[in-house]
Amino acid sequence: MICVLIYCLLHFSSNKKDENVTQVFHNLGQMFQSTLVVAEHNNDKLTPITLNAITAASKLGGEVSCLVAGTNCAKVVEEISKVHGVKKVLVAQHDSYKGGLPEELTPLILQTQKQFNFTHICAGASAFGKNLLPRVAAKLDVAPVSDIIEIKSPDTFVRTIYAGNALSTVKCNEPIKVFTVRGTSFEAASTEGGSAASEEVAAASPTGISEWLEQTLTKSDRPELTSAKVVVSGGRGLKSGENFQLLYDLADKLNAAVGASRAAVDAGYVPNDMQVGQTGKIVAPELYIAVGISGAIQHLAGMKDSKTIVAINKDPEAPIFQVADYGLVADLFKVSVCSLN
């Protein structure tokens, strides 16, 4: 069979243009590719960034499988089996997977990759994925590619560098490609139309390195920052944490999430889980309102993909106006930000 294939390729290459030969090899390569998407979830519901990772995986060609590891995660398995583009859902349930500890998930992923011979392994570039996949790559002795924003081919990826001011095209020659996906750069896969089969996989032996105790979530009536359609963010220009109440009032009127610049976080105005930027959360809402934010490149890297950007700052030379669709040069304390509604 191999001889026939080689003969056909040689015969084809002697009679067709070079670009056609390249396309044949490309198609053949896709036939032997398969991608494992590590699902992020809370044992009850799938985290949205996993849907973006599935879209990215689908662009590689070949089959896409999802690994769901947890405890009593039947709802997540059912949810992901309906996602368009997913061929198979691999399910591993064990008490050690509660909380998604990377120390416990890494051996499982290695074991699963060896069993199914996946050529690519990916996850969303969230705190979960950024903590887990570098460990997997280290164990596989390959170099990971982090926070990709585009896939040019199965071995070529695009990511941002210099706080988003430049793009880097990375060609990965590793036998197994391990990468994380920036959620805002890929559309979420449709949660309808899929009919993936589920298959149980054996749990890896617990490492006993760490133990999940508990997780306490802050309850809020506002949407989650990375998935909100509208985000209102404040910077050091608000001068105090108490003045963030102006933004909270506006956010409640707009059903928006509230974010902050690193300067505001470092000043102690708000907790660090509200930080938007290169070292914080990456957002791309329909509407982003920046109040009292000058626009350091680290902050712009985390929000410049927003569909519409509105900026309020008293400094007309503030960098935030370079990316804003609408700008208001004014002292935020002399205008009623709530009137934006």
Automatic annotation (TrEMBL):
It comes from the Eukaryota. FAD binds at residues 236, 261-262, 275-279, 292-299, 313. The keyword Transport applies. Its cofactor is FAD. It is found in: Mitochondrion matrix. GO terms for cellular component: electron transfer flavoprotein complex; mitochondrial matrix. The keyword Chloroplast does not apply. Its main location: mitochondrion. Keywords: Electron transport, FAD, Flavoprotein, Mitochondrion, Transport. Belongs to the ETF alpha-subunit/FixB family. This is Electron transfer flavoprotein subunit alpha. It comes from Amphiprion ocellaris. The lineage of its organism: Eukaryota, Metazoa, Chordata, Craniata, Vertebrata.
